[in-house]
Design goal:
The chain folds into two domains: 3-67, Transferase, Pyrimidine Nucleoside Phosphorylase, Chain A, domain 3; 78-296, Pyrimidine Nucleoside Phosphorylase, Chain A, domain 2 (3-Layer(aba) Sandwich). It is of the alpha/beta class. The protein is globular. α4 packs parallel to α11 (190-198) and α13 (266-282) packs across α14. The protein starts with a helix and ends with a helix. It has helices at 3-11, 22-34, 39-51, 56-67, 95-101, 125-129, 143-146, 148-151, 154-160, 166-169, 190-198, 254-262, 266-282, 289-296; strands at residues 78-82, 108-113, 138-142, 180-184, 204-208, 221-227, 230-236. The longest helix has 17 residues, at 266-282.
């Protein structure tokens, strides 16, 4: 279809806008990934799409188009971690420590990264994964290698400078064919949307009120696990486990983030163990978070 019709569908205002069908969204995304339309048209669509706003059916259609371009490499017994591509701005990443703790369990962690995308301006997983020595059970996938078409849209997205629908669909590309996945959400209303978009791709799909939208728990929050068409909710409080880590409210540098990973405090290591216990529970390697946490401290 002529791409202008897609711009018209999302960019004519409340009365004139309409939702795209699954097939239309898939075609739209294919044209965008091929960059067979001008960058100005891509930016115009993304802005209108965000303001309309996007529907689950549109997200699913766009995700289907992405699947055709992604080069998969299976990692067995793996948990895919869905990080935002705009990074973390105020706190260090914890997944390198979690991976070390999980080595004996043989659970593999899948991390995806790329150049920084709009709009937070934080430290990216790519910056972390290229600056430290990863454990054998940490599998880093650089999008420039497995999904170059999305990677090549970075300049257009940064010129636009806003969050778009891409920030949602890019978090879980299923590149490692993982049976399990976990991603972070800010607000509970997004719970249903994420489940409808992603859950049928995994044996078990989890969402957590993680730090800065990541799948990393730093303070009291909720965990949801969707499995076999059933949703379970759990409240997790680090203080219950005797953890008193204080989140940062100041912008953190890459150097500070790396230093806290390489020289973690006792409280930060306890927090890493709690996150490891959550991942063991999500993947069915423990019957409860309490059981997993006790085992890791045994």
């Amino acid at each position: 279809m002529d791409f202008f019709k897609y711009i018209h569908a999302v960019g004519t205002g409340k009365k004139g806008n309409r939702d795209l069908s699954f097939d239309e969204s898939k075609d739209m995304m294919t044209q965008v990934l091929n960059q067979s339309v001008h960058s100005e048209q891509i930016a115009a669509f993304l802005l209108g799409w965000r303001l309309k706003p996007e529907t689950v059916e549109e997200f699913r259609g766009a995700l289907s188009a992405c699947d055709a371009y992604i080069t998969q490499k299976e990692v067995v017994n793996s948990l895919e971690l869905g990080y935002p591509f705009d990074g973390k701005a105020k706190n260090p990443y914890i997944f390198p420590l979690v991976a070390k703790i999980l080595q004996e369990s043989k659970l593999n962690l899948v991390i995806i990264g790329d150049e920084k995308q709009p709009a937070k301006g934080g430290i990216t997983t790519k910056e972390i994964c290229t600056e430290i020595e990863l454990t054998p059970n940490t599998h880093y996938f650089d999008r420039a290698n497995f999904f170059k078409e999305m990677h090549q849209l970075t300049e257009i997205r940064n010129r636009l400078g806003l969050r778009t629908g891409f920030n949602t669909i890019e978090k879980l590309p299923h590149v490692a064919r993982s049976e399990y996945a976990i991603t972070g959400i800010f607000h509970k209303p997004y719970l249903k949307k994420y489940i409808e978009i992603f859950s049928d791709r995994y044996k078990s799909f989890a969402l957590i009120q993680g730090n800065e939208g990541t799948p990393e728990l730093f303070s009291k929050g909720r965990l949801w696990i969707f499995q076999e068409k059933e949703l379970q909710e759990f409240i997790i409080d680090p203080e219950y486990y005797g953890i008193h880590y204080k989140k940062s409210w100041e912008t953190i540098s890459l150097e500070d983030s790396l230093d806290q990973i390489k020289n973690p405090s006792d409280e930060y290591m306890k927090l890493a163990k709690l996150n490891a216990a959550i991942y063991l529970f999500v993947t069915g390697n423990a019957t409860s978070i309490n059981e997993a946490y006790e085992k890791l401290n045994g």
